[in-house]
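Why do we bother with a discrete structure alphabet at all? Because it lets us treat a fold like text: something you can write down, compare, and reason about line by line. To make this less abstract, here is a complete entry for Flagellar transcriptional regulator FlhD. Read it the way you would read a sentence in a foreign language you are learning: slowly, and without expecting to understand everything at once.
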Amino acid sequence: MYRFGEKMTISNTSTLAEIREVNLSYLLLAQRLLQEDRVSAMYRLGLSEQVAHVLTSLTLAQAVKVASSSHVLCRFRFDDHAILSSLADKGRSASLAHAHAAILLADSPVEQIG
């Protein structure tokens, strides 16, 4: 893991490039989903109206610049053990597991711009 002031190595450079790639993919996917069905996308991505507005207003150049952050922009939404367990439950049918996870996620707070 890179620490501030630490010399960059090939591995760190590769990791940062992978983070940028994930970030850009996420931003472009979020923009496409928001353009296709804004309400559904906001629910699926856990976004507030403010964040959705910012994402849809980004130009490609701005998205690339934002994606260049050394931090992963998307958040793993399965902090709750019940949600992850529901999706991973091999004993349930896939549709039932997804429905249960959707119900649990519906209670999750959306991301806000601070």
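What the structure line is telling us, in plain words: The longest helix spans residues 10-36. Residues 76-109 form one domain.
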